[in-house]
Amino acid sequence: MATNEDALAVLGLLIAMKNNAIKKRKRRLWCKNWLQKRNEYSHINLLTEFKLFPKDWHNYLRMDEETYFQLLSLVTPFIKKKDTVMRKSISPHERLTATLRFLATGRSYEDLKFSTIISPQALGYIIPETCEAMYKVLHKDYLKVRTFFVMKIILTAYKHNIY
Q1: Helix pair angle (54-61, 65-79), 10° resolution
Q2: Which of 50, 65, 101, 157 gives the lowest tally of CB atoms within 10 Å of its CB?
Q3: pTM (predicted TM-score)
Q4: Per-residue pLDDT at 30 exceeds 60
């Protein structure tokens, strides 16, 4: 037969176990709710409106619509990600637009997250990856390496204050 001391010990153990269960902290959210509503709040909706106003489009992305979509078609194979069971991936359109806004404005990732509805951590991966993709597809046509002969001409012109 159990004594009063044994009963008190068991009761104390049960109370301690209950207190430990209460003290467990709540899990943090995997993703904030407003970040999950990218389709509603994103700047992509604004771009849809800008199609009617080419000057606003150009002011927002620093290039015209045709050039943007040419660039998008070039970089898409390098920046497209697959959807997972957990969530849809960030589209190449959103990735490129976020990168161009970053390059055009110089805003921080923390500030950019509000207009793009993409977390700063994701922007930290997306922007360098997209810049690298843009370099891969554009460097042959737009970033010419000068030869020794051309550099010598420029140096001579510079010395004679012609350049």
Answers
A1: 40
A2: 157
A3: 0.67
A4: no
